[in-house]
Amino acid sequence: MRKLNVFNFITLNGFFKGPNHDINWHRHGGEENKFSDDALQSEGILLFGRRTYEMMYSFWPTEMAAEQFPETARGMNRSQKIVFSSTMKKAEWNNTKVIGGNIIEEMTRLKKKKGNDMTILGSGSIVSLFAETNLIDEFQIMIDPVVIGNGTPIFKGIKQKLDLKLTEIKSFKSGVVLLSYKPL
Q: Which of 44, 100, 104, 184 could form a disulfide with 163 if both were Cys (CB 3.0 to 4.6 A apart)?
């Protein structure tokens, strides 16, 4: 059975995006880039909500991404991707499939299939929905040492308590800390 993981970066005060979906506060240092590059080598399937997909698609297939982050851009562009959306019918980014309808049923079905593990990037409402329905196997939360005045909390709208067990801590020279948790 495939695993479903979450990878998100957040501010010290728990926001995964600022006003107007801003993520410019995230530190993209050398160690963090290497971590992303290594993670993309696993050939897992990347999952997005529509807004995160649009943000990723606006950057990773560009020449600027290839110049600034060549390995990450290569990995993002070659990876298989799934977008969960009730409004999008077709995705322009290569290797991307759009799934609408009942995404809980679809994710349950996808997890039962053989194949590569899946990772949700960003996509807070999908993270909250899948967390509440016990579909997520691991949460990787990269905490940036920055506080912003306003934003969207990583688990916005969650209605029940999530009990998690810390399984790993990784510190980066920039002050960023990666915490890995598994549900109890």
A: 184
Burial (CB count within 10 angstroms: exposed 0-12, middle 13-18, buried 19+), residue 149: exposed
SS3 56: helix
Pair of tokens at residue 2:
């495939």
The whole-model pTM stands at 0.91
Mean pLDDT of each 10-residue bin along the chain, 184 residues long: 94 93 81 75 88 94 94 92 94 95 95 94 92 96 95 92 96 93 96
Q: Where are the domains of the chain?
A: 4-176
Q: Residue 181 pairs with which residues in a beta bridge?
A: 139, 166
Class of domain 4-176: alpha beta
Tokens 């160690």 belong to which residue? 31
Q: Which amino acid is at 158?
A: I
